[in-house]
Each structure stands twice: as structure tokens, then as C-alpha cells.
Design goal:
This protein is an alpha+beta fold. The chain has three helices and three strands; from the N terminus they run E-E-E-H-H-H. A hairpin with a 2-residue loop joins strand 1 and strand 2.
Length: 76
């Protein structure tokens, strides 16, 4: 499932208009989908679930505190 979709030619991120986000936050900006991140983490974790593993995230790749909280909450 994709959480970035077009509705009547307008882009939405998880049912929130990207235009509204831009009007509130300005540009440039990054827009993350909590649902997409957790879905990808779940798929990654499920793929290795049958083997002993440790999932490590490269914080230097993206030190965004909100993203780090999502990953930590999921056990990554």
C-alpha cells in the first residue's frame, strides 16, 4: 500500500494535503509517512525473524529525531 496518493490531481501524504503541509511548514522540506516507515520496518524485521539478528540504523544517514523514535519504538 502506498501512503502518498493523488486525489483529484492533488498530492496527499496519509490523507493530509501536501499543499497544506507546505503552506504550514514552508519549503524546502521532507515529508515522511509514518505508515510507510513502519510498514517497511515490519517487512525488514519479518524477513530476518527466523534468524538471530540485530538491526542497526545508521544515524549518520538521517538523524531526524522523529524518524529515530519510530525506529526505536519498532525495536530497530
Amino acid at each position: 500500500m502506498h501512503y502518498f496518493t493523488y486525489k483529484n490531481s492533488e498530492l496527499f501524504a496519509e490523507d493530509v494535503s501536501v499543499r497544506d503541509i507546505v503552506n504550514r511548514a514552508g519549503t524546502p522540506l521532507y515529508i515522511y509517512s509514518h505508515k510507510t516507515i513502519t510498514r517497511h520496518l515490519d517487512a525488514y524485521m519479518d524477513a530476518f525473524n527466523s534468524h538471530p539478528n540485530t538491526i542497526c540504523y545508521a544515524v549518520k544517514a538521517n538523524p531526524n529525531p522523529a524518524l529515530l523514535r519510530i525506529i526505536a519504538k519498532k525495536g530497530g
